[in-house]
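thought: fold this chain, then report.
action: predict
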Amino acid sequence: MRLKINTLLVLLATIFLITSCNTNSTKTKNESEQEAKTLDLNEDVLLYSKECITEYEVVKAQREWADGIVRIGEVYTEGGDYKTEAAEFIQEMYGYDLGSVLFKPTLASVSQFRNSFDSAKSYFVGGNDAYPEDEGFAIKPYTNVKWDNVGIINNNCRMAIAMGNYYFTPKDGSGDVKVEYTFAYVKDKTGKIRIASHQSSLPYVPPKK
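observation:
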């Protein structure tokens, strides 16, 4: 009799455990479905894409940046609205509307870091009393910009970093200007590659002995 009671108790305990596991499993599944629905609803407010950045996209973005610099110079030379052209270029290429942008331009020594839209625009076209050192980098003007990447890192998926030299060809024919660069790229929710960090400088010239 005692054996039958013990067997019955084990059976009841097993049934309880199975029922409890099924209940928890169902609850977890329902919670996961609800979480997925919540994420779907919030995707419209995301600033960045969930897709990885490819090396091809980085090279394409570099070409677009180069074309933009040349285009600003052309508009300036032709007497057009080069400041608006520069503003549209910055909005298109840089991520100031997404968050912080770390920008250290080549020809800036007083206001070295341009972490706002207005300061970046001043660097490219000048005309801002808050940055009297700016003569307008993009309105020199240049006829070509050639990139020479020593490497592109995109193995962390959501950000890609490129480093190398780029060469600016002045319209006056004075010879290419070699500049060192490091760019960091992110992808916005539309799939557009945007610059999150831009550092460039003239190559080091060792002192004469």
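thought: worth noting. The radius of gyration is 28 Å.
final: tokens above.
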